[in-house]
Amino acid sequence: MKPPLLRILFVLVAAAAALFSLAQGDYWYLTLITAAVFVLAAFIRQGSDDTRILILASGEILVIAVAEASFWTGFIVQCAVIGAVLMEEKVPADTRDLTLFAIFCIAALLGAIILDRSNQVLLPFLLVTAMVAVTTLIFTGIQEMRERDMYAGGP
What we know:
Blueprint: H1 5-20, H2 28-42, H3 49-69, H4 71-86, H5 95-117, H6 122-152
C-alpha cells in the first residue's frame, strides 16, 4: 500500500528539522539514529494501526533528541509527528482534522513551555502526566457511556 501524501510530507519535515539540529546538539549521533528509526517506522507496514503506534513512539523519541539541541526545532518536530499520526488519509484534510492538529500543537507548545521555563523538572512533568491521565479517564468514561446507550437501545 502506498504511504499517504500527508504522512510523507510530515515525516520529511520532521526529518529535515532533525537534520538541521545536528550541529547544535551534543549528542548528534542519537538524533541521527532516532531520525532514521522514525523514517523507517513511517514507511513500514502501511495501513495498520500498528504503524501509527510505531510512528508515535519513534517520533516522541526523536522529539526528545531534537529538543535537547533546540527548543523550537523540537516543537517543530513535535508538530510534524502529530501531523503524521493524525492526517494520513485525506488530501486536503477536513476541518475536523485541522482543528485537532491545531489543538494538539497548541497543547504541545504549552506543555513544552511549562517544562522549559520551570525550575523543577519532575513536578511539571508529573502534573502534565496527571492531567493527561485524568483527561484520558474522562474521555474513556464518556465513550463508555455512549456505547452503553447505543447497545441498550438509547438515543
